[in-house]
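Supplementary Methods S3. Input chains for the assembly prediction are listed below.
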Amino acid sequence: MRLSSRVAGLRESATLKINAIVNRLKQEGKSIYNLTAGEPDSPPPEVAKQVVIDAVRKNLSRYTPTPGLPELREAVAAHTNRRQPSLSKPWSAQEVVVSNGGKQAIFNAVFSLIDAGDEVLFPAPFWLSYPEMVSAAGGTSVILQTSAAEGYRLSPETLESAITPRTRLFLINSPSNPTGALYTREELRELGKVLERHPDVWILSDEIYDRIEFEKGSWCSFLEANPGLKDRTVTVNGLSKSGSMTGWRIGWTVAPVELTRALIALQGHSTSGICSLSQYAAIAALSLPESDFEIQRLQYLHRRNLALEVLGKSEKIEVCVPRGAFYLFVDCKRALGQNQDANGFAERLLQDAQVAVVSGADFGAPTCIRLSFAVDEKTLVEACQRIVDYLDTLPG
Ligand SMILES: Cc1ncc(COP(=O)(O)O)c(C=O)c1O
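Predicted structure tokens for the full assembly:
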């Protein structure tokens, strides 16, 4: 069969692949310690559930405007303005497009900005959908290496040296999936200074994990650190991760109005507006005070520390302490045999120790694995202990 060149090279997500194996093993009756989850294990906000029940009863189930209900666009603009108080002109509802999760929001932006041959820069390790979206749009991914020693954060020098006349877009994700790297306001400012010298480069800041920071007040929105870049920055956020609402598919872009018009046109001919019920729920969830999310933040912090304590018992791995999100990124280089990558390691860990993790290969880090700590404490501690015990059985 002849597929279009846009989709022919797309790869299946590593997370979906490992989950298929987990499901097969479960069907065979094996109990699996699953640390692959890319989603919170906590329920969505109570108020969001109630609003949806009421909306169903009131038959609020018709098409909505493509970029979202006006009240929701207002609520998103207000939410973003609270995170970016230094902007000289705040965002308005006209600059918001509500999409099917952060994923569609990023996809829309990449498709609206990238032409064949354009270069898109982003640091590695990266969220595995970035390169696939860029290649589907005909662009070229330029991957900027970072190291565990620098906390997997990109230096301004590396960014500067990678920019060419073909560079069209820079993607930044803080806190990061998969590393948990989080850039402080000062670090974002340093990157922003580089970008100020290159006026043709757009910035997409993926802030989907914004509430999950481990030092309170450490997270900063890219535009809050760099308000002068407002006319070429797209902020992506949503309720999937920090609102525990993954399946409700609520994400958005906040971007200058000319780009927003293109995003609306693209979405209007693909999916149209997102599920009406989710939009009512999103309005309710966005009205909650930040303090309502504190318990969840502290719970992730506690779990992170528990997992670090257990994994710290093995000298065969290097664990980078995450500053945000709910993942641990573990370098297994020392435990891997010659010419082995983490794909094989993750498969053997699953077969031999019944622990499921995601290989770092698709995140641009072939010797690493990603562990999610969005699971209950008992599972997390047992799984980490099994990893340590398994490492003990390996030579070296
Ligand atoms: C870094 C990052 N950005 C965006 C998304 C997309 O989130 P959503 O579920 O809202 O589409 C994810 C989801 O895993 C993510 O990890």
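The chain has a mean pLDDT of 95. The two ends are 47 Å apart (CA to CA).
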